[in-house]
Design goal:
By secondary structure, the chain is an alpha+beta fold. The protein has a domain of 61 residues: Alpha-Beta Plaits (2-Layer Sandwich). It is 25% helix and 40% strand. A five-stranded mixed β-sheet has the order 4-1-3-2-5, covered by helices on one side.
Length: 97
């Protein structure tokens, strides 16, 4: 029996653009079997949608909260549990909002 799929929306603030945050988040998500997307926002934050088993989603969220990639500086992370959207794979989006 497989674990239920959960989804979490994450907004990360700090020095998180221009430091390979999106690519590194994609690497972490894929390593943990998490689907969804990550993108830069117009306000300077990074937003991610993470879907998968709770333990996998939490592992990626914990990595983000722990500071993300080496040159990033995470000042704040906001998370929100949301309904899974059925994403396939994990993508870096280029549609900042």
């Amino acid at each position: 029996m497989s674990e239920p799929t959960v989804a979490t929306r994450v907004v990360v603030q700090g020095r998180v653009q221009g430091v390979f945050f999106r690519a590194s988040t994609q690497d972490q998500a894929r390593a943990h079997g998490v689907t969804g997307w990550v993108r830069n926002r117009a306000d300077g934050a990074v937003e991610a949608w993470l879907e998968g088993p709770r333990q996998a989603v939490d592992a990626v969220t914990d990595w983000i909260a722990g500071g993300g990639p080496r040159h990033a500086a995470v000042d704040r992370i906001d998370t929100e549990d949301v309904d899974p959207a059925g994403h396939q794979g994990f993508s870096v989006r280029h549609d900042a909002r």
